[in-house]
Amino acid sequence: MTISLYFVRHGQTYLNKYHRIQGVIDSSLTEKGINDALDAGQRLSTIHFDAAYSSDLPRAIETGRLILSQNPSDTKTTTPLAGFRELNFGYWEGEDDVKTWHIIGGPHGLNSFHDMIAEYGIDKAEDTIAAADPYKDAETSQAFWNRLQPAIDQTVKNAKDGDNILIATHGTLIRNVVSHFSDIPVNVSTKNGSVTKVNWDGTNYTVDYFNNVSKNV
């Protein structure tokens, strides 16, 4: 049994362009972001999607729609699930990313999110961000997975053997999935429009590839 989940990071947004932290807050796709999604759709156009899901945030829903517009599937819109929403960065939402990572990680010699992940692993990096939030609104790794895992499980529960499923979602979420189900390093940015393939064999999730922006998906 194999069910294939194709996780795609949304196209570039204005907050991405301005290097602002974007978790649960949202901004529109830029022109490049629209092209990121269309390009992902072209690269995935040989794969017939039997179902399509997305985060419930508009940037992911729009990315999913643009991908499906290039696909032979009759499905042209995603089913939004809050479980596929990006990590909540709490107080740090909308802040300049370089400044924020320097505030949180700098005292420990870690001046980027990538550095924190490389040093701590992604779970502890997220817990460090949450601990630094003065309002305590940022999600811990455990809180994040408490909503993410049921969403992943729902997609395969509703599928049958051989199905291909699109999931239009977010960069940090994809990094969490890859880290959780493989030994692939995730201390690199998930590119806008990149494809990450995860397989379910009825017992285990395994990562086929991560952060793919090539023609071979």
TrEMBL record:
Pfam family, one: His_Phos_1
GO annotation, biological process: negative regulation of glycolytic process; regulation of pentose-phosphate shunt
Gene Ontology molecular function: fructose-2,6-bisphosphate 2-phosphatase activity
Site entry: Transition state stabilizer: H170
Keywords linked to the UniProt accession: Hydrolase
Active site positions: H10, E86
GO cellular component, one term: cytosol
Annotated positions binding substrate: R9, H10, G11, Q12, T13, Y14, L15, N16, R59
TM stretches of this protein: none
The UniProt record lists the keyword Transmembrane helix: no
Listed SUPFAM superfamilies: Phosphoglycerate mutase-like
Keyword Hydrolase: yes
Name under which the protein is recorded: Histidine phosphatase family protein
Originating species: Lentilactobacillus hilgardii (Lactobacillus hilgardii)
